[in-house]
Amino acid sequence: MQAVKARAASIPGLGLGTWQLQGEVCAERVADALAIGYRHLDTAQAYENHAEVGRGLRASGIERDEVFLTTKLWRDNLEREAVFSSMEASLRELDTDYVDLLLVHWPHEAVDLEETLDAMRDLQARDRVRHLGVSNFTQSQVEEAAEIAPIVCEQAEYHPLLSQDPLLASLRARDMAFVAYSPLAHGRVFDQTVISEIARAHERSEAQIALRWLLQQPSVCAIPKAAQRDHLEEDFRVFDFMLEEEEMDRLHELADRASERVIDPDFAPEWER
Length: 273
Known about the structure:
Helices cover 42% and strands 17% of the residues. The chain is an alpha/beta fold. Helix 5 links the parallel strand 7 and strand 8.
């Protein structure tokens, strides 16, 4: 599997997102994903599935150091002592000594970013966290974070219905990765004529075209969620074909034109374009 190099980190290009996966289904899908060949798992404190992710990882039989494991600090846990206490709880639930990547899940205007990132750096110095990053930050917020700590990536919504060109350019200039969540726009990619036409030309699904478009861009990873094993397998079959330059351009044009954001809670920052 291709990997994205970002500063000191090497992040597998395709991962399993576990948002909304719960209970035994979550544990089974994690084990299935690792059996298929995935080596990148994404979870978060807010998903309330750490124990299941950890159980799936153990059941897979894959060595811990072969898997790139990400979790995120929730907005209630961004003050210094909460960073430490919540992460110790997360590591116990995951049944691991460390995570490969720890992200600030969402920016919080009431908590000083430097306080949060300094605490995360302390966790890094204690070998509880290997790499640091942010999620759902605007371009200016990412740039601020990069001045404080050696962050390796931004995780944010990205798919063929939402352009992220300015943010991507900023990340690439700083040798950082873009980890794309909701890469299928919660199923909206299946309703797009352009994507369907390209899918037919390659005898692939719309999901595979959307993922191929992301992974074919420099510095971009993708973490689709799949609640069924056959979808996991389908999503993984994206490394044996390439989109033509003209097809990539058509999808970029669609993203510019559509500008559809599917994740936008009340506490989200004021998005920049």
